[in-house]
UniProtKB/TrEMBL annotation:
<dbReference type="InterPro" id="IPR008988">
    <property type="entry name" value="Transcriptional_repressor_C"/>
</dbReference>
<dbReference type="Pfam" id="PF04023">
    <property type="entry name" value="FeoA"/>
</dbReference>
<dbReference type="InterPro" id="IPR050536">
    <property type="entry name" value="DtxR_MntR_Metal-Reg"/>
</dbReference>
<dbReference type="GO" id="GO:0005737">
    <property type="term" value="C:cytoplasm"/>
</dbReference>
<keyword id="KW-0805">Transcription regulation</keyword>
<keyword id="KW-0963">Cytoplasm</keyword>
<dbReference type="InterPro" id="IPR022689">
    <property type="entry name" value="Iron_dep_repressor"/>
</dbReference>
<keyword id="KW-0238">DNA-binding</keyword>
<dbReference type="Pfam" id="PF01325">
    <property type="entry name" value="Fe_dep_repress"/>
</dbReference>
<dbReference type="Pfam" id="PF02742">
    <property type="entry name" value="Fe_dep_repr_C"/>
</dbReference>
<dbReference type="InterPro" id="IPR007167">
    <property type="entry name" value="Fe-transptr_FeoA-like"/>
</dbReference>
<dbReference type="GO" id="GO:0046983">
    <property type="term" value="F:protein dimerization activity"/>
</dbReference>
<keyword id="KW-0678">Repressor</keyword>
<dbReference type="InterPro" id="IPR036421">
    <property type="entry name" value="Fe_dep_repressor_sf"/>
</dbReference>
<dbReference type="GO" id="GO:0003677">
    <property type="term" value="F:DNA binding"/>
</dbReference>
<dbReference type="InterPro" id="IPR038157">
    <property type="entry name" value="FeoA_core_dom"/>
</dbReference>
<keyword id="KW-0408">Iron</keyword>
Length: 215
């Protein structure tokens, strides 16, 4: 298992690949990689028995793929929580160092770190942290762009992507915000959104709206 393979498994899991099929394009955008690179890696992961890939139908994790992804996600998100809560990292900057740390320490240290943090249920960008025994509530996979004008929801979590998190910090959208869709502009235009808890009206780009999960 190489770090690149691990990155793909984590993002497939984060996008909902445990229970549904996701597209190569979603993976490419989330990891900031070319479509050809995704195709190549998807073929490798399928040969390893970690994913199922049906052309034009999408990607989903196998049972073994889910187990591997859960373990990777747990380590990564525990480190993210530590770096943000105890060392004061900015949310957008935490991923890179968490990526390094998750590969360099023992499982015992991860267990002790989880104890030290008080067994957090969610990471700083709102996603669930799987427990050691694989028991955890499922994240929502409804994205902001799924909502229609007039509908409202709570922001639950964001994809762990540096550019996205920087963008959301700039527009001041946060985990737990209550939002209402005011308008969806045509031809993949932005969404005009009202943040109900602040009264602010903001514009969210079409692409970003596919990586903001709500409930």
């Amino acid at each position: 298992m190489t770090p690149k393979k691990e990155d793909y498994l984590k993002i497939i899991f984060e996008l909902g690949g445990k229970t549904s099929k996701i597209s190569n394009k979603q993976v490419a955008v989330s990891l900031n990689v070319a479509a050809g690179s995704v195709t190549e890696m998807v073929n490798k992961l399928a040969k390893d028995g970690l994913i199922i890939h049906a052309p034009y139908a999408g990607i989903s994790l196998t049972e073994e793929g889910v187990k591997v992804a859960e373990a990777l996600i747990r380590r990564h998100r525990i480190w993210e929580t530590f770096l943000v809560e105890k060392l004061g990292y900015k949310l957008a900057d935490v991923h890179k160092d968490a990526e390094v740390l998750e590969h360099t320490v023992s499982e015992e240290l991860i267990d002790r770190l989880e104890d030290f943090l008080g067994h957090p249920q969610k990471c700083p960008h709102g996603s669930v942290i799987p427990s050691k025994d694989g028991v955890y509530p499922e994240d929502s996979h409804v994205v902001l762009n799924d909502l229609k004008p007039g509908q409202s929801a709570e922001v639950e979590h964001f994809i762990d992507n540096h550019d996205l998190l920087e963008y959301l910090a700039d527009v001041k959208l946060n985990i737990g915000d209550q939002v209402e869709i005011l308008e969806k502009l045509p031809f993949e235009g932005p969404l005009n959104v009202k943040v109900l808890n602040t009264g602010e009206e903001i514009s969210i780009g079409y692409k970003a709206a596919h990586y903001i999960f709500v409930k």
